[in-house]
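Action item from last meeting closed. Structure (266 res):
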């Protein structure tokens, strides 16, 4: 176990609100399924909080790269019905058969995978036909946005990364996906977790993720979080955000990645 893990999961639990916001929305989407029995998989399950909140009709499985998190989830699984699986941080595959789960969801976990594109492919593979993939993650697609995970790096590295992210932005305009990752983040370099997303690996782009799932896997976009068009732009910062959201491939800017995608039926 890394020294920072207890602190990290403690802070994550403090921020977990199942009475409102996206987590409540995810619960409602799954629980309101018309099926009598629902099989779900959580990507990056942490200490398995969702497993203790779902009703009995939900058959829950969770995967995580943290041995500490999996052991803690197993101990805290009140109902005893949840199943938890440890996967290698370098893994590009999920240990499940095709078409196994009605729902696959990840709550602030996609940004921690070393191979996000491959993990998205796997998430689609293990979904049943007509099943739903639900993703919640930070949206860092604006190429000049600051990333805490590289604050330990020198100026040359940061300038180079900004340049690469600008290149990635123009690539998205022409339909190319880079799935840009950071090889060494602040946490992996120092063993510390002090600020939000210090341990970020994948620089998430909502447009990149949603477009990839549509174009590669022909998934249907059921819901996605965007800055409200009806919202009146107040203040200079809000006006800037509204202007940026009008740029090509930036329609999701100003909101986190929160999307519900449906796998095509046979």
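Sequence:
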């Amino acid at each position: 176990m890394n020294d920072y893990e207890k602190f990290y999961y403690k802070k994550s639990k403090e921020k977990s609100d199942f009475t409102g916001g996206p987590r409540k929305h995810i619960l409602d989407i799954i629980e309101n399924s018309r099926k009598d029995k629902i099989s779900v998989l959580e990507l990056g399950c942490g200490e398995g909080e969702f497993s203790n909140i779902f009703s009995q009709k939900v058959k829950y499985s969770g995967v995580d790269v943290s041995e500490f998190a999996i052991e803690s989830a197993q101990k805290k699984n009140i109902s005893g019905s949840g199943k938890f699986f440890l996967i290698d941080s370098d893994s590009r595959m999920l240990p499940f058969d095709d078409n196994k789960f009605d729902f696959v969801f990840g709550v602030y976990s996609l940004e921690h995978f070393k191979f996000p594109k491959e993990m998205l492919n796997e998430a689609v593979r293990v979904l049943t036909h007509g099943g739903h993939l639900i993703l919640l993650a930070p949206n860092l697609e604006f190429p000049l946005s600051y990333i805490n995970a590289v604050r330990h790096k020198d100026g040359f590295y940061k300038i180079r990364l900004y340049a690469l992210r600008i290149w990635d932005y123009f690539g998205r305009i022409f339909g190319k996906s880079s799935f840009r990752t950071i090889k060494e983040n602040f946490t992996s370099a120092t063993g510390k977790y002090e600020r939000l997303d210090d341990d970020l690996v994948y620089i998430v782009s909502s447009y990149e993720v949603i477009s990839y799932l549509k174009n590669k896997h022909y998934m249907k976009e059921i819901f996605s979080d965007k800055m409200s068009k009806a919202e009146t732009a107040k203040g200079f910062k809000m006006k800037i955000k509204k202007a940026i959201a009008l740029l090509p491939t930036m329609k999701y800017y100003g909101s986190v990645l929160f999307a519900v995608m449906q796998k095509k039926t046979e």
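Note appended to the action item: Residues 155-173 form the longest helix (19 residues).
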